Amino acid sequence: MTKANIVDQVSWHTGLSKEQCADLVELTFEIIKETLGHGENVKISGFGSFVVRQKRARRGRNPRTGEGVEITARKVVTFRTSLVLKNTINLGT
Known about the structure:
The protein is α+β, with helices and mostly antiparallel strands. The protein has two domains: 1-39; 41-93, IHF-like DNA-binding proteins (HU Protein, Chain A), CATH 4.10.520.10. The chain has helices spanning 3-14, 18-37, 83-91; strands at 42-44, 48-55, 58-61, 68-71, 74-81. It is elongated, with a radius of gyration of 19 Å.
């Protein structure tokens, strides 16, 4: 599913114009990005949580050359599904 598909679905379910829905979807994603950018987690009840984690620096290896490289410390975002979403996914199989 793409962002355009989400806009279409929101428009269909709400009766709002696609332009209004595109603005709402874009604003929602912007708020989530800004929140994660500040290092805060985002929890969406019934869907899941976006969790910001700090990874430490470590030694890695260039797979092409086999040469060792230093991988810098960085923040990563992980997603954990809620139990409701897990159940919904598993019922569909």
